Amino acid sequence: MSLRARLLLTLGLTLVLLWGLAAAWLLRDLHDQFVATLDQRLAQSARMVAALAAQLPQEVWLAADRQALTIPPIEGLACQVHSPSGEIMARTHADMEDILAVGGQGHSYRESDGVTWRVFTYERDGLIITTADRMDERNLLLGNVIKVAVVPFVVALLGSLVAIWFGVIRGLAPLEQLRGALSQRHPDAMEPVSSAGMPAEIRPLIDTLNALLARVRAAFVREQRFTSDAAHELRTPLTAAKTHLQVARRLEGPASHKALKHAEQGIVRLSRTIDQLLMLSRVEGRLVFDDGVPSEIEEVVILARRDADPAGTANIELPLTWPDLELAIPRELSITALRNLIENALRHGHDGSPVTLNVVHEPAGCDAPDQVTICVRNEVAGVDPEVLAQLTRRFWRRGTQQGSGLGLSIVAAIAARFGGNVTFSCPTQGSFEARLTLPLVRRQEGPATPDQTPRKGPITTTRVMRDDDRE
To answer: 128, 239, 416, 439 - which has most CB atoms within 10 Å?
Structure first.
């Protein structure tokens, strides 16, 4: 059911129901008041006749004993006066003795010849006065009164329904305009929707839609650039491998083996680039990485160092003591991010210069979450500020260095997904520092119970992704 039909049905039924109940209440009260008024008029007529009869001279009553007096009739009203002995002393209609006969005092209904009468009997000073009204005349008068009351009521109800109809249509017209504007847009159009002339209730919807369009437009631009760069990066090692294979086919001996070796290196580079693209796609997507293994900071650093330097020949300095902290990100991603930073420092630092790792715990504040910063520092010839701003760009490489240019992009994507960040700086002349800030798992205060004690996983080498680029 459309919104317009739902509003019309709801408002219309509510209005008809409320007005119907009000009309029923009004008609019931009108009927009761009408009957009470006519009964009161009937009783007042009887009392008035009794008061007039009390003022008549004695000789009039003596004459009435011999012959009943005739009272001029009133439209729709009959009256008859009886003496204490039951004789008729005065009357308006001679043919209504059954209707106006003496009965119990008060109001009652009597019927004669198919006609119903409303009768009132009143006694005063021995005289019994009986008055009567025709019910058909009462009902006719009541019907006229109800008609006069109901016709304006029905007209007002119909007018209200028409006003609701036009009000709902006019009120929903901006939504219809918005629907028409969206239906006429080109499928590739990502421009913001204009909110000019729109009601205040619809503007938040338009603002949200414009924000969504902006995100979609940014995603399209990012994916187009990513696809273009990826195609270019994959074409280079493919072309190189194809060329070396063609050379190996034509040559023999050491030259052929050398060409095959170069082709193998190109394939390895291509495989590494594809793995990095898949990792970046997974990190920026909505895939779940959590394998249920706690991401302890000491274990993450040790595994990342082992993956970055399998032979153990590099000069990597680790902290002497470790804080008991658990990262709020999956262990696989935390190891990948830190290993990429270590590999980047080993590849671009001076030969033999140490790579120093430091862990800084930043307790939670009023507005900041509990987090930890892992600092990776090495010695370099110098990095320009313009270069620092380019380090996390996809497929960006400094100069003619080999690599796909995705390692630090993966680090930035991992940190951003879990609310962290990665920054680069040159604290001193000839040094370079990467600071990876990640959130921590909040732990309850007090002694740990067996259920709360972090579960230590086995320390194994997990080679997920490498960085083969930059600084």
So the answer is: 128
